[in-house]
Amino acid sequence: MAFMAQTIAERTQPGQRQSIEESNYVGHVYARAEGVAGVVIADKEYPTRVAFGLLNKVLDEFTTRYPQGTIAGASSSTGDSDFSYPELQQYIVTYQDPKQGDTIMKLQRELDETKIVLHKTIDSVLARGDKLESLIERSDALSSQSRMFYKTAKKQNACCIIS
């Protein structure tokens, strides 16, 4: 994977982003004009937008911490290109689950959960509406039976007058 990362980083023109598939993995590379490139190697299901978002964030922070002159001077004079960037480990942990690292995916997940709750609420409201309709029908039937009972009772009592 290190060979793949180095190869696609070297072959990507400054200012370009690209994704290269290899076996079950995809290498997402972003080469910055400052001469720095970042590579994320993930499985094919990992969202491309999230990978490039991570690369953009990491490269922005890295180039802020190590300006262009610092990077060029260290790599050409000493041949050593090892720069300390401890935040990278935290990003790797956070972005293992793309929904944790990406705000749009978080919002989408929250919207999906809200949609499920709304569907359940609508279903229960509709069920209550059906129950209310059934109660109204029973109430109407009871009212008509009550009227019939009243009329029958009135007829029955009309024949028998108590004096």
TrEMBL record:
GO biological process, one term: endoplasmic reticulum to Golgi vesicle-mediated transport
InterPro entries, per the entry: Longin-like_dom_sf, Longin_dom, R-SNARE_YKT6, Synaptobrevin-like, V_SNARE_CC
GO molecular function: SNAP receptor activity
Keyword Membrane: yes
Domain (Longin): residue spans on this chain: 1-87
GO cellular component: Golgi apparatus; plasma membrane
Superkingdom to which the source organism belongs: Eukaryota
Coarse class of the protein's main subcellular location: membrane
Residue stretches making up the V-SNARE coiled-coil homology domain: 103-163
Membrane topology, record value: Lipid-anchor
Coiled-coil annotated spans: none
Keywords: Cell membrane, Coiled coil, Lipoprotein, Membrane, Methylation, Palmitate, Prenylation
A Pfam family: Synaptobrevin
Family: Belongs to the synaptobrevin family.
Protein name: Synaptobrevin homolog YKT6
Gene name of the record: YKT6
